[in-house]
Amino acid sequence: MAPSKRNGFSLVELLVAIAIIGILVAIILPAVQSAREAARRTKCRNNLKQIGLALNQYHETYLCFPPGWIGVTNHQVDANGPSGLAWGAFCLPTIEEYAAAKAIKPKVSITNSANAILQTFKVEIFRCPSDISPADTFSVALQPPNVNPDLPKNFAVTNYIGSFGSTDYHPCATNAVGVPCPGNGVFYLNSSVRAADIRDGLSNTMLAGERHSNPSLPTPIYGTWMGAPPGGVEAIGRILGAADYGPNDPANHFEAYSSFHPGGVNIVLCDGGVQFINDSVDMNLFMGLATINKRDNNVVFVPQ
Question: What's the whole-model pTM score?
Fold first, then answer.
């Protein structure tokens, strides 16, 4: 009698095959995830490149960079005053968001119902693909003792913030009407910084950088492209960042630059160049990079 043929695997063979597949998955999966993150990081760099080009085109037209944000009450500077419109809104025409640019009502507060459509308008170029937040919009509450009957109000999320400089902007939130809020970076209250004002050199000065969403905080905090909601909680921080803490600061200070890219953050310089700043960057260099006139043009970047 002819011996019967075996039609399946033995238990040992099956276990060996499963073990081999498990090992292959363990080897391949990190590589796939790494490749995906590399693609997301490249897309983020491209976003910042486009933002840098847009801001420089604005400068070519108006001979200065746009204001960090607009705040005026009774013809006096006011950190919590209308309209709150920020640098991101001013570069809409040069990132080909022409319809959005035309729809803005600049003579009223960004929290006014006349700007309702744009308050939650998502601009793809202002979102980092590595950001894990599922939210596209968030709510800004009123910060007492400020007064703004429009708040709370929802706004679209962004991951890119302009450079206020190396100093904290939070003290400005309580400034009385008529008291300015100067930063030592490119963007601050009613600013109009020219290329000639950037004494450290355009290739040695930060224009904007990344900040990841903070949905894990008790009160989640997000940035937005449209502006600083007058009188709102963390209004200035919605559109500007400060280099008084290092990238991805473990204390999770809201003004700090941060990202979900391993090891650092992307920034765009005033000449339009994009660089990756490591979490371990020397703080003196990083703070100098954020200022326009510290006379510290010895920053050396690692080739990307």
Answer: 0.86
CA-wise closest residue to 132 among 241, 251, 261, 31 = 261
- Asked whether 266 and 48 are in contact (CB, 8 A), the reply is yes
How would residue 225 be classed by pLDDT, with cut points 50, 70 and 90? very high
CB 244 within 8 A of CB 287: yes
How much of the chain is helix, strand and coil, in % rounded to 5? 30, 15, 50
Q: How many residues does the chain have?
A: 304
Estimate to the nearest angstrom the gap between the alpha carbon of 145 and the chain centroid: 28
N-terminal to C-terminal alpha carbon distance within the chain: 71
Omega before residue 129 within 30° of 0, cis: no
3-state secondary structure of 115: helix
Burial of 109 (0-12, 13-18, 19+ CB in 10 A): buried
Q: How far apart are CA 108 and CA 88, in angstroms?
A: 17
Which amino acid would we find at residue 207? L
**pLDDT top residue among 21 and 28:** 21
Residue 99, CB-side half-sphere exposure with 13 Å CA sphere: 5
Average pLDDT, the chain: 89
Span of 20-24, 94-98, 162-166, 177-181 with lowest mean pLDDT? 20-24
Alpha helices in the chain (DSSP H): 11-62, 87-90, 98-103, 116-119, 283-290
Q: Which two tokens stand for residue 4?
A: 């019967």
